[in-house]
Every structure is written in C-alpha cells, then in structure tokens.
Amino acid sequence: MPVAGQRTQRVAIAGLGPIGLKVMQALDRGIDGLTLTAVAVGNPDRPRPELDRLSRRPQVLPVAELESVADIVVECAPAAILRSIVEPFVARGKMAVVLSAGALLTNWDLVEIAKKNGGQIAVPTGALIGLDAVTAAAEGVIASVRMVTRKPVKGLLGAPYVVANKIDLEALTEATKIFEGTARDGARGFPANVNVAAALALAGIGPDRTTLEIWADPKLDRNTHRIEVEADSASFSMAIANVPSENPKTGRITALSVIALLRKLNAPLRMGT
Fold it and tell me: The pTM is what?
C-alpha cells in the first residue's frame, strides 16, 4: 500500500509488445504508489483481449494524448517514435522510462529538455548485468569499456547495418563477427538490437569511447553479452545469456528490469545504486 499522504502516480505504457504486456500485467497486479491509466498501441483497431483480462482496463490512446493522463510513461515502442513519446512528458517535468537507449543517443537534447523543466529520463538496467558497477566506476576514472554481443541470426535480421552491407545472415554456418566499432555506430546500425550497448555507454565513458563487437551465431538460442571494464577503482568482466522473449531481439529479463525499476520508485527499501 502507498505510504500515508503519498500521491498515487499515474503510469502510461507506449507499446504492447512482449515487454509492454509484462509491465502492464505487473501494474495491474499492483505496484505500490502506481496505477495504470493508459496504453498506446500501433494498431488501436486490433482486438486486445489481454486488456479485457485486466482487473481495471486502461484507456487506449494515441501517443500524443498519453501525457494528459499520466505522470510516468514507459516507452516500449519502436526507436523511431521515441521522441514523440518522451518529449511531452519531460517537457512538463514528468518521468519517461526509456528502453530504446540507442535512440536516446540521437535525441540527446531530450536530456537537456528534462533538465530545464525538472523532468527525468530513466534507463532500466535491462539485459545488462553490472550496470551499477559501471555507474559507480564512472565516479572515478574509467580507462576502457568493451562489449561483445552474440545473438542468434533471427534476432539480427532486418537491422539497417545488415541490410546496407548486404550481409546474408541466413547463409551463416558458424559464429561470425558482423560489426566492430563504437557503441554510437552500433546503436545507429542496430537500433533494435544493442540498446544494452547504449545503456552501457551512457553509464560509463560515453558512446564514442565504448567499443562494441556484434556476432551472429546460428547455433545460439540466447542473446549473450560480455563486458570488460578497466577503471582506477576496479577491473571487472561480466557475462550474461538472456532467454529471448516472444520478440527474438529482446530478452525476457528486460521487462522484469522495468518492473523492478517501477517498484523502486516508492519502495521503503531500495537495493542497488
């Protein structure tokens, strides 16, 4: 239950893919101090039986109308519409929970808009274990951050970099490195695949100094990430293999990370940085 005198915050979700659905269901089951008021979907005319199964059905609204009925928006939508979701909220001093961290790199002025108006952009840990450690290390001096991402072929199909370079992923018979460069370039070439790299860059030494490798592996059935950090406070490496959600580009742990972030907002005990 909310603390006495605490105002219940209204939450809107933009996008009801695998992540948005899980977050919606968690809010419906109950998160202290929060209530789900609205969702935005790509096709509002499509039947949504999952909404009818909720204890309290939220409004289904266009993205442009979410800010008028919510204090917090959770962005679970294609990267291309990040700005239209986030800007109305942060411009009015509200919070936006952003999953498309890669798109944030190309819309960096949203951070300045949030700062000017008292808003906040929160990027969940998502599939990136150890983000707290990187954030802490960044309070000192970080010399280097390197990330190696390995994904099943189907999770990389259609990425702009793959299309532009005419990489035939389905012809691969063994693990193949298809990209090496900065996190900024990786986010541009793989907008639906490397939000973890963008989040890592934002937590650490920035998108132009964070290096990234992307491997396509026809034998993998999970997204795997390995991170290596050299800093004046510690040298550490981390690895995680995420079970994919219904969307092969996204791990199941991403939705759980968003839910954990929302629970922290009004929790009497908060763990982690």
Answer: 0.88
Q: Where are the domains of the chain?
A: 9-126+253-264, 131-250
Is 177 among the catalytic positions?
no
CATH level 2 (architecture), domain 131-250: 2-Layer Sandwich (3.30)
Q: What is the mean pLDDT of residues 178-207?
A: 92
pLDDT (tens digit, 9 = 90+) per residue, 245-264?
A: 566 556 678 899 999 999 99
Give backbone dihedrals phi and psi of 150, rounded to 5 degrees, phi first: -120, 130
In which band, very low, low, confident or very high, does the pLDDT at 212 lie, cut at 50, 70 and 90? very high
The CA distances from residue 172 to 18, 164, 178, 230, in Å, are 28, 17, 11, 33
Of residues 98, 96, 25, 86, the one with CA closest to residue 58: 25
- Cα separation, 31 vs 12, whole angstroms: 14
Tell me if the domain spanning 9-126+253-264 has CATH number 3.40.50.720.
yes
| Tokens at 28, concatenated | 């419906």
Q: Annotated catalytic residue: which of 10, 184, 225, 249?
A: 225
